[in-house]
Amino acid sequence: MNVVSNMAVFSSRRPIFGLQVCDLDWPEAFTFVSALADVPIGQTAIFFLNADSANVMLKDRSYQEVLSRHLVLPEGIDFASLAMHGRTFPANLNRTDFVPALLTYMTTPKKIGLVGGRRNILKRACENFASHAPWHEFVAIHDGGFTDTDSARIVEEIARHKVDMLLIAMESPKQEVWIDRHIRPEHARLVLGVGSLFEFMAGEFPGTSPRARSLRAEWLHRFGLEPKRLWRRYFVGGPSFAIRVFGHVLGERLSTRRRVMRVRPQGLPER
């Protein structure tokens, strides 16, 4: 069991489809995750739940179990939170903004390993991370061009570098499953599944504007950058996610109604 099982109880959380998701604003999240990075034992892996990964989770029970074993931050799932709990999350902690800002917030120097992405992307991302937060040491350990049969070799390579933190960039759900299956405390104290972050850091795409962040419209910014790749995720997966949210809320209300109807009133006089 990783450190999050003991420490995350101090973090406010709320369930989304039964998965506990951290309920923190930006300063709280920075403080909490930075503290986890300084824990001298154990390990914390951090994943981000968005509509796409939630759709996968609802179809794949084993993927939900993987997510439940780690720390999960909200990424564009305010609609689900509003429908299920009557309020949005305090912040949309999307990884392309959160991770670079976290590295700036962490003033204690760390050795940070990068795994994933295309080889040229990985190299440029590593260089730009070093410019972004030069007090940390960044190491490009391996690109994402490896198969499952290569995993043991990659994990050994990670262990040789003795890093404090790992940033692993793969497609979901492969990313989370691979981390859960292969990465252990001896590899890094803090592990983050960062998806397409390396491409942003390499300058392949511009970062999200403050205006888009304030409106929580990061998804629209991403769609404008990669419409051919992302149209299905947003315009097929998005409505599918909304339908699942409505179905969940309706099911919860019907279940509550049935429980109430089964309870007999107590203390009423017999006729």
Provide a quick synopsis of the model:
By secondary structure, the chain is α/β, with parallel strands linked by helices. Helices cover 52% and strands 14% of the residues. It has one domain.
Q: How does this structure look, described?
A:
With 271 residues, this protein is of the alpha/beta class. The chain has one domain (4-255). Helices cover 52% and strands 14% of the residues. It has helices spanning 4-7, 26-37, 51-59, 61-68, 78-85, 95-105, 119-132, 151-161, 174-182, 197-201, 210-214, 218-225, 227-262, and strands spanning 13-16, 19-22, 44-49, 71-74, 111-116, 137-142, 165-169, 190-193. The chain has a six-stranded parallel beta sheet with strand order 4-3-8-7-5-6, with helices on both faces. Helix 3 (51-59) packs across helix 4 (61-68) and helix 3 (51-59) crosses helix 13. The longest helix is centred in the last third of the chain and has 36 residues, at 227-262. The chain is globular, with a radius of gyration of 20 Å. 37% of the residues are buried.
Largest sheet: 6 strands, parallel
Q: What is the typical, i.e. mean, pLDDT?
A: 86
Please tell me what the overall shape is: globular
Which structural class best describes the helix and strand composition? alpha/beta
